[in-house]
Specification:
By secondary structure, this protein is an alpha+beta fold. It has one domain: Hypothetical protein (Archaeosine Trna-guanine Transglycosylase, Chain: A, domain 4, Roll). The chain is built from four helices and twelve strands, in the order E-H-E-E-E-E-H-E-E-E-E-H-E-E-H-E. A five-stranded mixed sheet has the order 1-6-9-12-2, with no helix packed on it. Strands 3-4-5 form a three-stranded antiparallel sheet, with no helix packed on it. A hairpin with a 2-residue loop joins strand 10 and strand 11. The longest helix has 12 residues. 25% of the residues are buried.
Length: 215
């Protein structure tokens, strides 16, 4: 089964029903030719370039297709209880808000290393399409889990999570959900300037809904 990695705030947004969409950078990025046309080269599966327009949807291999069931990889941990019982813990659970294990004998593990057997959240893909990052609408930004418009001024402009989304103090610099999403995107890709908001990269727009695990 394929999977998607989500940060703890975004897992909370999924659990709360606020997040039903995600955007992921297309790799490698299409190239704009001197003739003003977008071309794609996927060295893994294609031997020639394709015009990147409506036909891109069929010319380029999409990472998922509608109907696919994915498991969510999130920050997790294993524990051993009394009488040898064992199980999994998840940082997105309310019980672990503002809690770090420290000397408790266990530690949080990266979502990268979560196996399917530890997953508790499953998503069914309902749509996959390609577009530019800045094409996102206010409604779609809301579907991305952006519940509030603002950064948290009390934390030096850093994002502050609450109830599965982002909250903050109203100011005049982030008046829309789209702008808040742009700030979040730049935070995620802080170390990859080629994918930041102002570069307007091509992305896969993936819509999904909660579902049960498939056998």
């Amino acid at each position: 089964m394929k999977s998607l990695i989500f940060s703890t705030p975004m897992v909370k947004a999924i659990l709360a029903g606020h997040k039903t969409m995600t955007r992921r950078v297309i790799k490698p990025q299409p190239v704009l030719t001197r003739f003003g046309r977008w071309h794609w080269m996927d060295a893994r599966s294609l031997t020639s370039s394709y015009t990147l327009a409506e036909e891109m949807q069929s010319a380029v291999s999409r990472p998922f297709k509608p109907g696919d069931v994915l498991y969510v990889r999130e920050t997790w941990a294993t524990f051993t209880g009394v009488e040898g019982t064992s199980g999994y813990l998840y940082k997105a659970d309310p019980a672990f808000d503002n809690y770090e294990p420290r000397d408790s004998g266990w530690k949080w593990r990266s979502p990268t290393f979560m196996p399917q057997s530890a997953a508790r959240i499953f998503l069914k893909v309902t749509d996959v399409s390609a577009e530019r990052l800045q094409d996102i609408s206010e409604l779609e930004a809301k579907s991305e889990g952006i519940k509030s418009y603002w950064l948290h001024a009390e934390h030096g402009g850093e994002w502050h999570e609450s109830n599965g989304s982002y909250v903050g103090i109203e100011d005049n610099t982030h008046p829309t959900r789209v702008r808040a999403f742009a700030e979040l995107w730049n935070h995620i890709y802080a170390k990859k300037p080629e994918y930041k908001w102002d570069k307007n990269p091509w992305i896969w727009k993936i819509a999904f809904e909660r579902t049960e695990a498939t056998k």
